[in-house]
Amino acid sequence: MSTAPATTDAAADAGEVAAALRDAPFVRVVAAADGDSLAASGVLARALRSIAVPFQVRVDPVPDPASTTTDGDDLVLGVGSRTTGGDYAVGDARPASLAVADAVRELGIDPDPVLALAGVAAAGHPVDAGDAAALLDSASRRTAVERRPGVAVPTTDLADGLAHSTLVHAPVSGDPEAARAALASLDLPADPTDDDRRRLASWLAVEATASSARAVDAVERVLRPYATPDDRFATVAGFGDVLDAVARERPGTGVALAVRDGDDATRAAALDAWRTHARAVHTATAEATTGRYDGVLAVRIDTTDPGRLGTVARLRRDFRSPEPVVLAVADRAAAAAGTDDADADIGIAMSEAVRAVDGDGTSAGDALRATARFDDDVAVSRLITAFREAL
After folding, report:
1. Which residue of 61, 167, 208, 213 has the fewest CB atoms within a 10 Å radius of its CB?
2. Which 8-state DSSP code applies to residue 107?
3. Terminal CA-to-CA distance of the chain, rounded, Å?
4. Parallel, antiparallel, or unpaired: how do β-strands 362-365 and 369-373 relate?
5. In whole angstroms, what is the distance from residue 293 CA to residue 198 CA?
6. How much is the pLDDT for 234?
7. pLDDT mean over 164-176
């Protein structure tokens, strides 16, 4: 895949990217299949529409090199992964949603703050600190945004939210009946008070952190959310969760959700994809065969979907892994997730492992995550060995 000549990860480059976008006859956006990249693509697409620049958005966990090759006067913008390629790339050292928001402002347009914040949340970054704080202020001026006790889910149905959230892995995850039973045992009313929400958050924090010390930090993503009662989804982080799931599960629906103000049908389709994705990845997270190595937990999953593998790798890393790096593998796909203290670049390690086992395989990733896809079956044991050696 091509190497991007510029990046908006540095604030000074936002003006250069904006100038290129403004003058482009057509913009092709190639986005990684995750919530941050999808949100960033939506922020960008809305801005391009407002200045009458035609565009196309493609979401793919491992983009085909042909999709990122520049062709004629078209401008190709890679969003999310350092290996996405194109004329420019955004979103490696910081959330893509923040990088794109900078470029959009340079176009003289206010970015959609709730959508951008959902992307920041999907990237696992706080929405009330650093550059994201300005977006939070902007969102608060446009609509009702308030921090409250409780859990970050996209729906007002708490049982639905608890069962299908992919921000956390707990005993009720993937099981709506178990979630309803848990809420009943907590005697939580249909219209909970702040004290009720605090009890729910405390219960979830205990349930989710029982099997991993790392989970104590990871569960914070789902606690004390920023509520958006007048928006399409109930919380900012819940919106980000839906974006991440739909980007991996049904990217076409994800693009429709992010690129335009979603109608009821698009919202319903996105929530359906979120539920489908959650049930699949939580089942795989709980039941997959594992092998523990020095520094790496390998998880064998029976799927060919690299998007689902990426979510499993993240959930295992955050809530069930004793090792700092998780490699989720299948016959024709793989994904890995690592922690900040893993002392390894996951994207580079995956790229080297793919070359070692299959010259026709492709991968995309950054320092903390990576995804790979193969045209034919590969020996899983060889891939695990190659990845460990590359680390």
Report:
1. 213
2. T
3. 21
4. antiparallel
5. 38
6. 96
7. 97
Q: Is the pTM of this model over 0.85?
A: yes
Strand partners, 235: 227
The set of residues, in sequence order, having a beta carbon less than 8 Å from that of 209 and lying 6+ positions away, is: 215, 216, 219
Query: Cα–Cα distance between 116 and 95 in angstroms, integer?
Result: 10
Beta-bridged to residue 59, according to DSSP, are 31
Q: Check if the beta carbon of residue 147 is closer than 8 Å to that of residue 224.
A: yes
Measured between alpha carbons, how far is 389 from 327 in angstroms, rounded to an integer?
Answer: 13
H or E segment to which residue 89 belongs: strand 88-90
Report H helices in the chain.
Answer: 14-23, 35-50, 96-106, 113-122, 132-142, 158-164, 176-185, 194-208, 215-218, 236-249, 251-259, 264-287, 306-319, 346-357, 380-390
Under 8 Å between Cβ of 299 and 292: no
Which position has the token pair 């799931």?
245
Continuous segment of H or E residues that includes residue 334: strand 333-338
CA pair distance 109, 52, nearest whole angstrom: 13
Q: How many Å apart are CA 62 and CA 236, to the nearest integer? A: 27
Reduced to 3 states (helix: H, G, I; strand: E, B; else coil), residue 5 is: coil
Quickly list DSSP for 174-207.
Answer: T-HHHHHHHHHHTT--SS--HHHHHHHHHHHHHH
Q: Is 290 left (phi over 0), alpha (psi -120 to 50) or beta?
A: beta
Contacts 24+ apart (CB under 8 A), 251-255: 251/33, 251/38, 251/59, 251/60, 254/38, 254/59, 255/38, 255/41, 255/42, 255/57, 255/59
* Contact assessment for residue 105 and residue 111, using Cβ atoms and an 8 Å cutoff: yes
Q: pLDDT digits over 105-143, tens only?
A: 999 999 999 999 999 999 999 999 999 999 999 999 888
User: Distance (Å, rounded) from C-alpha 116 to C-alpha 136?
Assistant: 9
Rounded to whole angstroms, the Cα distance separating 10 from 384 reads 35
For residues 80 and 82, which has the higher predicted lDDT (pLDDT)? 80
- Number of Cβ within a 10 Å radius of residue 35: 33
Q: Are 4 and 68 in contact (CB under 8 A)?
A: no
Q: What is the C-alpha to C-alpha distance for residues 331 and 95, in angstroms, rounded to an integer? A: 31
Q: Helices 236-249 and 113-122, interaxial angle, to 10°?
A: 70
**Within 13 Å and on the Cβ side, how many CA atoms surround 50?**
16
